[in-house]
Amino acid sequence: MPTKIDMAKFAKFCKDMGFIYQSSEIYGGINGFWDYGPLGVELKKNIKEAWWQDMVRNPPPGPDGQEIRMVGLDCAIIMNPKVWVASGHVGGFADPMMDCKASKKRYRADQLEALSADAGGKTVYFAYPKGDDEAQKVAGKKAKKANAKPGATVAVMSIPDLIAALPIIVGPDVEEAGTLTEPRAFNLMFESHAGPIASEENKVYLRPETAQGIFANYRNVLDSTRLKLPFGIAQVGKAFRNEINPRNFTFRSREFEQMEIEFFCHPAESMKWYEYWRDLRKKWYSTLGVKSENLVPREQGKEELAHYSIGTTDIEYMFPFSDEPQELEGVAHRGDFDLKAHSAPPPKGSGNDKLNYFDEERWNADSAGRSTNSFKEWLKTSPPAADVEKYQFTPHVIEPSAGADRFTLAVLCEAYTEDEVPDAKGNKETRVVMKFHPRLAPIKAAIFPLVNKDGMPEKAMALYRSLKPHFNVFFDDKGAVGRRYRRQDEAGTPFCITIDGDTLKDDTVTIRDRDTLKQERVPISQVRATIERALTPGC
Ligand code: GAP
What is the mean pLDDT of the chain? Predict the structure, then answer.
């Protein structure tokens, strides 16, 4: 993988193995919601822990070799709804919108009508905005030109119909079919009510991203940590979006987890940090076993950029359900959009004018020749704005925003391998093996007594108990050893440790490598160190 695979077959494999189940399956399921099974929950936890360890606790040095300062947050999912007004999620953008990749125009999906026509035996739709007579005439002319048989019908297409017909719809302002994007509502937020009465005043939203909790706490973090620019605030947590068209297994879900960093820096240094995070984030996926050729960083075109973004690079992955690479993570240069939005006067923002940064070090360094050392006093002398901005400004923000579920899906796709191995009699048999990076593997090692006698089970159980406090390990004494290996290969366990007759004589065990199938004999006392070595981060 990832060569093309049948996603239905793959989803079944994930279910059979206990990676991912459809949510509420016993009631017929619910579209866009997924549950992680016993192996899946370990895998996703390992992904989130690796991210936290490598990005928050131990990030690599910055572009100039400097230490990077990172702290974490864990914010409530429900926030004051005014947060979502300031962020731009509420108001103005609540409709399902479609973009035309060729004309760069945007249309309300629920207001497009189309003439359906039979052009040379094939159905083609010519779309135009409802109620726009001129546009309807143009659509009619285009249909005629395309040799459509007259008598074409006029239909308001429902959104599912529009989505299904996208490749054969000619947009209102173009001549070719297939240039309209899927409808996407900007405000995809799930609503609820805080308090006993379901009234408009009590309306709240389930957060559609973890980022805004970070911006809303910017001042709290600065005041409680006394961090100096540049620094990052990270958060891992659930986000909810009422996606119009959840699809491709967990790829686009309505409930998912994000791993987001908001990295605050001086505006003059923002491009340097943007490039740093873009390159680091791509590299991180490679260190966890994703092949470079399956990772495609793509700079978004100006027309694609979100309302807050100065520049965004999508790190895309060749998911096996698509011919085109698909977004795994977005690294966005958000400029000062968010801090300025939240500090704007009410009703648009909170009116908190402290969402800026005072560069105390620079202020003190420039003290020579100044009549006062108090910044407040100095402001009273009405210095030029450019001078004030040298010391007090709104930081710029670089945001690497990754999806924990999306990366879990990518890891599952990347790991899935079918190969041939010899069975006990030397005949070739096909095995499914999940080639997870050992750091991400749900089970790190399985411990087997070769046979259930001669003290081997006791010795194996003792080893299992000694490893259990350190790693997720599995004890298996059921069935032939070959069968036990297969089960662990399917679960993606990197090491299988067998206690045999020699163990009883010299305290050594065999460690079988999942990928090379090589068996190495090592003293029991070195088993823990062998596993630990494989789990050492390599970022
Ligand atoms: N704060 C910026 C932000 O949320 P985004 O590109 O909308 O940006 C960031 O989302 C990441 O979250 C995506 O790259 C993807 O990994 C994940 N994500 C977004 N929507 C998702 C969905 N419906 N299902 C699963 N993951 C999703």
Answer: 91
